[in-house]
Design goal:
It is built from 16 helices and 8 strands. It is α+β, with helices and mostly antiparallel strands and 350 residues long. Among the domains are: 150 residues, no CATH class; 80 residues, Leucine-rich Repeat Variant (Alpha Horseshoe), CATH 1.25.10.
Length: 350
């Protein structure tokens, strides 16, 4: 059985990866498939129909690639240097999820994984495939089975060394590689991540209903957001870090060493009024190389208008009025809602 060499371990470190952790796929269990089936049965996936369509392929890495014998899992730390919960206090500014405040992590990690995978293929003489959250592969259960961390009550991976702030990459290999030990669950009686969720997206520990999750609502959900949830979104315009940021294990977290994932100053709480005025061209320029670009300008402006409606700042009415006659339904609908919220705020102030 092949053991990862010092050359491979050193190169992982040089590329700012965690050390690699390994799962033996021949003994990898059924729990992931059972959890996924329950998730879909309860319709927790919302409008993400691709999860149901690819369920069979997600059940086990061998459903994706039958020749795979081992999964090598690595993380890239993107720990913030400022608590992201602080950004929620300034309602006139936008709060963007930490992971999206710089370059798209998919592009950063994939090339580096290919390099590590190339070393593994060279040394083992066996084929490899690399994955960075772009294929029907369940990275978090694999990472937990490999020992990189454990899935917390918020369903995200938690590491004793890095807290909640890890991007995950997986290399599947046709070689049998010495496995590492799985990590045990260290959540204990803590329920901080569940209690802080503004939309009550956790029906029970270790279960998430995406239909209520702000990350899902701002990124994956394409239509108007249910009105009862809009006021709970606050100033979050792309993603949500609440359940990650509150985790007590973050006291051991480190700030990101990789410059490409450190937050750009322009994306640390930008002005809502400026973001609301972005044309399609300006939007694409502003978010070039950012994961935010993928949701498109219309959905982005929808999110910004919800945030403006929650700002309680009547001076932002002008930014809303520009969109009241929009030809795009989700923008017009969001603008009308935001206008009503702000005019009600004005009445209260008077």
């Amino acid at each position: 059985m092949f053991s990862l060499t010092k050359t491979i371990l050193d190169r992982c470190n040089e590329l700012n990866f965690t050390k690699p952790y390994v799962v033996n796929l021949e003994t990898y269990g059924q729990k992931t498939a059972d959890d996924l089936r329950e998730y879909i049965d309860k319709k927790y996936h919302g409008t993400m129909s691709w999860m149901q369509e690819t369920e069979t392929r997600r059940n086990h890495p061998n459903s994706l690639w039958p020749d795979a014998k081992s999964a090598i899992v690595m993380g890239l730390n993107y720990g913030p240097y400022v608590d992201p919960l602080i950004s929620l206090k300034d309602k006139e500014k936008a709060s963007i999820s930490v992971y999206a405040r710089n370059q798209d992590y998919h592009k950063i990690i994939k090339g580096r994984l290919k390099e590590i995978g190339g070393l593994i293929a060279r040394d083992t003489g066996k084929d490899i495939k690399v994955f960075v959250d772009t294929a029907p592969l369940m990275e978090k259960p694999l990472a937990a089975a490999a020992g990189l961390g454990w899935q917390g009550k918020h369903t995200n991976l938690v590491s004793r060394e890095y807290g909640s702030w890890l991007f995950l990459g997986v290399i599947l290999s046709a070689a049998k590689i010495e496995a590492s030990d799985a990590e045990i669950n260290h959540c204990g009686t803590c329920n901080e991540c569940i209690n802080i969720c503004p939309t009550d997206a956790f029906p029970e520990p270790y279960k998430i209903d995406a239909r209520k999750c702000i990350s899902y609502l701002t990124i994956e959900h394409k239509g108007p957001v249910e009105e009862s949830l809009r006021s709970k979104m606050g100033n979050r315009i792309y993603g949500c870090d609440d359940c990650l940021a509150i985790c007590p294990w973050n006291k051991f977290a480190q700030t990101a060493a990789e410059i490409k994932v450190k937050a750009k100053e322009a994306l640390n709480n930008p002005d809502l009024s400026e973001l609301a005025s972005l044309s399609d061209l300006k939007f694409r320029q502003y978010f070039a190389n950012s994961p935010i670009k993928r949701i498109g300008r219309n959905q982005f402006v929808r999110n910004v208008l919800y945030a403006i409606g929650n700002s309680e700042n009547i001076d932002l009415i002008k930014a809303v009025e520009e969109h009241l006659e929009s030809d795009v339904f989700i923008i017009k609908d969001a603008a009308e809602w935001a206008y009503l919220q702000l005019t009600n705020t004005q009445v209260k102030l008077e």
